Amino acid sequence: MPIRITMRAAAGVALVVVVFFAASPGHSFDLGKMLGGADQEDISTFKLIHVADLKAMLDVGASEGTHVYDANGPETREKYGVIPGAILLTSDNDYDLSILPANKTSKLVFYCANTHCMASHEAARRAVKAGYKDVNVMVDGIAGWKAAGEPTAHTSGSDGRNS
Question: For the chain: N or C, fewer Cβ within 10 A?
Answer without folding.
Answer: N
